[in-house]
Write a structure and sequence with these properties.
Elements (H helix, E strand, L loop, with lengths): L8 H51 L3 H49 L15 H8 L6 H7 L1 H23 L4 H32 L14
């Protein structure tokens, strides 16, 4: 049986490169899943808005409009929540893949340490190394949170929940002002809930990944 020391250096690099390309392909698939699910949700949302506008004009925004709205909007909201959950899972998958690629870069630099100045991405699998791979702008946490796909979907889901509850309150006989206030409160609470849930879920998923080649674990050569 061949010992580890008998494996040629070129074979080691080839194995690492093959794994690196595999992770890159998987990451591309993950991003494709995010974009496709988001597009599906926005398409359904657009169709629902158009349908509500046509039905509203046809029914003079009467009782039949409220009934139709309470049939369409919950289904749209369900698709939006399912999309939000899938995007959160995809973000965790992407973070896990970046961890893996950082470990591979660490192995590259163990073979050729003199190449370290040529790497602009991280080669440690601790959180700081992962942020280095994502780029310097990852330090702008609030900015990235507001601009992230899952937060955009979460805000839309919150608005859908508020509109649905507001229409339900109006159907049950609430005054217009009360219906608007109820919808606004539900929207605000839902957005905060989605933002807090995503933060806790992502932080929990990141902490579950064990760092094997962090800076504090490196032994000086």
């Amino acid at each position: 049986m061949m010992n580890q020391a008998d494996v040629p250096q070129a074979v080691r690099v080839q194995i690492l490169a093959t794994e690196h390309w595999s992770l890159l392909a998987t990451r591309s698939i993950t991003y494709g899943a995010i974009f496709s699910r988001t597009n599906i949700f926005l398409t359904v949302l657009s169709a629902a808005v158009v349908a509500l506008a046509l039905v509203g004009q046809a029914t003079d925004f009467g009782d039949r409009f409220y009934v139709f709205s309470l049939l369409v909007l919950p289904v749209t909201l369900f698709i939006g929540v399912a999309t939000y959950i899938r995007i959160i899972d995809a973000r965790l998958e992407d973070y896990w893949l970046v961890y893996g690629m950082n470990r591979l870069r660490h192995a590259y630099l163990e073979i050729a340490p003199e190449l370290e100045p040529n790497f602009v991405t991280g080669h440690h699998d601790d959180p700081q190394g992962v942020y280095e791979t994502y780029g310097p702008r990852t330090q702008m946490r609030l900015y990235r949170l507001l601009a992230s796909t899952h937060m955009v979907v979460g805000v839309i889901d919150g608005a859908l929940a508020g509109v649905t509850v507001g229409l339900l309150a109006a159907t049950l006989g609430a005054r217009p002002a009360l219906s608007i206030v109820t919808g606004a409160v539900v929207t605000s609470v839902s957005i905060v809930f989605f933002a807090n849930t995503s933060r806790r879920r992502i932080d929990s998923g990141r902490r579950s990944i064990e760092s094997r080649f962090g800076r504090q674990l490196d032994v000086p050569r």
